[in-house]
Fold this sequence. Notes:
mainly beta; 5-stranded mixed sheet
Amino acid sequence: MKAKIKQIDIPQDKRLVCISDIHGDIVLFKRLLDKVNYCEDDILILLGDLYYTRSDEISGHSTLKFIIELSKNPNVHVLRGNCDYVIENCFDSAEIEWLENLPHIIESKDHIFVHGGLTSNDLSEQDMKSCTKNDAFMEKGLKFDKYVITGHWSVVSYTHEIPCFNPVVNEESRIISIDGGHINIISGQLNAFVIQDGKFSFDYVDNSTTITVEKPQTAKGGSLNITWLDRFVELVEEGEIFSTYKHLKTGKLISIPKSTVWVDNEGNLCNGNFGTDYYLPLNAGDAISVVNKFGNMIYAKANGTCGWVEI
């Protein structure tokens, strides 16, 4: 089925705020809007995955209702993501109609907005499924005439050395990926990507607890971040809390909390969180967001970048 395309005009004097993959978290979504000082005069574009659907139920219905109200403002534009499908017994007729009318692509003079990705510069030939679910879109070697702003694929999966959840701007391909991995990844965040006067900026919120670092540490490691597509590892030496594994894609050895490694249906050992050798550079008194604690090590985030902190 061909993708639905919506054409919009974005006046040069307007601030553009883009948010993707809210996944039903109305509390964090409202916090993010407040943090970027969103106002009704801004152009707000939501890039899909507004809520979560699981077999016969919906998670985040209140978020959907809130977004529908927001969209009554003509400056608010909403895309449909791969999670935004209809379960008949979960929605009323007005919500179903609203969802079914959502576009898969939004195009302006300078930008294209799509949840998953595109297959070419020709928007008239885009398929609905490719637009809503296009894994690792930025790594497919495509180049575009306009900036293509996407969600769906968490940006941390594009960072193979140091895990970072901040938006990624690829100037060569003209692709901007903004999904901070909120809900899907334990250390994820909800990003707002802002364009104003031709300049890019961003801000984010997450649900982590913030603490103050008592002792400094220097950066080290940063040679490996295990991403979802390259999640396979092999046990080399078992330890009490951390074990040594060989990352099969790169052949590199890495120490990982053994409680975070699991076996998939084919019997492969996998790691998708905490799989990095990077230590955050910190000064005493710096604030960090605590993701998890393993023995005397904290997996933490500072300014959107994750790594280890020794305590």
